[in-house]
Design brief:
With about 120 residues, the chain is mainly β. The protein is built from two helices and eight strands.
C-alpha cells in the first residue's frame, strides 16, 4: 500500500508538492589525471514533497558526518544515496534551481521513499 500516495495530497495543502529534477548516478569515469568523475543518467522531472528534517531524521544521520544545509524529500519511486561500499555516488536533485546531493535514504518502501539531500555548491 502506497501510504505516501494517500497522504501526499492532504499534506500538500500545507506544504505543496513541487517538481524536482533527479539525475541518477551511473558510477564514475576517470579523467586524464585518473581523478574519479561522477556520471549521471539523463535528468527526469518528478513531483516531490520537500520538508525540513525531523529530530528522528537528524538522529538517524547523526554519525554520518553530513554537513551543510539538509532537507528530507518524499517521492513516489526510488532513488539512491551514496553507497561507499559500491563506490557509487548519490543521485543529484535540482530543486528551485539549486543542486542537491542525495546522501542518505531514510525509508525504502515498495512504492515510495524518503531521503536526505544536502545542498551542493553547483560545481
Amino acid at each position: 500500500m502506497n501510504l505516501h500516495g494517500i497522504v501526499a495530497p492532504y499534506i500538500g495543502t500545507v506544504n505543496p508538492l513541487v517538481p524536482i529534477t533527479i539525475q541518477r548516478s551511473t558510477g564514475y569515469t576517470k579523467d586524464a589525471s585518473y581523478k574519479q568523475v561522477p556520471t549521471y543518467a539523463a535528468p527526469a522531472i518528478i513531483i516531490a514533497q520537500v520538508q525540513s528534517l525531523t529530530a528522528d531524521d537528524l538522529h538517524a544521520i547523526e554519525g554520518l558526518n553530513i554537513q551543510g544545509e539538509k532537507r528530507a524529500v518524499y517521492i513516489n519511486g526510488r532513488t539512491d544515496g551514496i553507497i561507499r561500499e559500491d563506490k557509487q555516488g548519490g543521485d543529484l536533485v535540482t530543486w528551485n534551481g539549486i543542486i542537491w546531493l542525495n546522501v542518505h535514504v531514510l525509508e525504502y518502501w515498495p512504492d515510495w521513499c524518503k531521503f536526505v539531500i544536502t545542498r551542493q555548491d553547483g560545481s
